[in-house]
Amino acid sequence: MSHTAHIPSHRKPRRSASKLALRAGVAGGVLSTMAVAGAAGPANAEPVTETIEMPTLTADAVLSAAVSQSAEATQQVALDLELQAQEDAAAAKAAKSAKLAKAEAERKAEAKEKAEAKKRAEAEAKERASRDSERTTLSASSNTSATGSAATVVAFLKAQLGDAYVMGASGPNSWDCSSLVQAAFRTVGVDLPRVSQDQSVAGTQVGTSNLQVGDILYWGGAGSAYHTGVYIGDGKYLDAANPGKGVVIQDLSGYPASGAVRVL
User: Fold this and answer.
1) In sequence order, what DSSP letters do the residues of 11-39 get, joined into one string?
2) Can you tell me the distance from the alpha carbon of 25 to that of 128, in angstroms, rounded to the nearest whole number?
3) DSSP readout, 111-150?
4) How would residue 212 be classed by pLDDT, with cut points 50, 70 and 90?
5) Terminus of the chain with fewer CB atoms < 10 Å: N or C?
6) Residue 262 gets which letter from DSSP?
7) From CA 211, how far away is CA 257, in angstroms rounded?
C-alpha cells in the first residue's frame, strides 16, 4: 500500500450529473408556474406598488425663498415704522393744539377777571363817594330837637350800610358794634362810652316793648352787654353785626334784644 493512500483529499467532491439535472428541472418548473400565474391574472389589474415622486429642492430655490421672506419682513418693518411716525406726528399736533387752546382760555379768563375787578373797583369808588357826600351833609346839618336828633342818628347809621365789621375799628369804613353806635350819637352831640358794657347803662333803661327810634339796644345784661345797636323803627335795628355781615339792618324778631336805653 502506498504511504499516501490514507491522506484525505482537500478538494470538494464533484456533484454528480444526475443531481445537477434534478435541480435544474425543479427551478425551471417553478419559473414556469410563476409565468403561467402571471399570464392568468386580469389584464387591467393595478400595480401592487405606487411610486411617489418627492420634490427636489435645489440650493437656488432655498436661497430664493429665504430672500423673499427677508424682503417681506423688511417691508413689514418699514410699514410699521411709517405708521408709528404718523401716529407720533398726530399726537404731537394734538398736544400742541391743546396747549394753544389752554393758553388762549387762560388769557381770556385773566382778561375777564381784570375787567370784572375794574368794574367792582369803580362801583365801590362810586358808592364810597356817595357815602362821603352824605356824611358831609350830615356833619353840616344841626338839628337839636329830639325827633331831629334821632333822624340824624339813623341817617348816619344808614350811610354806613355795607361797611366792614372789624373788632376794635372806629371808622370811617370799618367798625365794631360799639364804635358805630358811639360815632352815630356823636353827630348830634351825645358823647357815649366806647364799649358796649358801658353803653348799656349810659341812659334811661326802657323796656323792649316800648321802643322809640334812636333807642340803644343791647344784648346781655345791663353793664355786662356784649353787643349794641340802634333801633330804627318798624321792628328793625341797625348794627355792625359781625365779620360775615358787616353793617346791616336786621329784624328784632330774629334776634331779640335783652334791653334798651334812651339817651335822646
Assistant:
1) SPPPPPHHHHHHHHHHHHHHHHHHHHHHH
2) 152
3) HHHHHHHHHHHHHHHHHHHHHHHHHHHHHH----SHHHHH
4) very high
5) N
6) E
7) 11
Q: Which three cell numbers stand for residue 11?
A: 478538494
Q: Is 152 exposed, middle or buried (0-12, 13-18, 19+ CB in 10 A)?
A: buried
- In this structure, the strands spanning 164-165 and 174-175 are parallel
Cis peptide before 256 (omega within 30 of 0): no
Q: If we measure between CA atoms, which residue out of 225, 233, 232 comes closest to residue 257?
A: 225
Q: What share of the chain is helix, strand, coil (3-state, %, to 5)?
A: 50, 10, 35
The 10s digit of each residue's pLDDT in 158-210 is 999 999 999 999 999 999 999 999 999 999 999 999 999 999 999 999 989 99
Give the residue from 165, 176, 168, 219 showing the smallest Cα distance to 197.
219
| Alpha-carbon span 111 to 64, nearest angstrom | 71
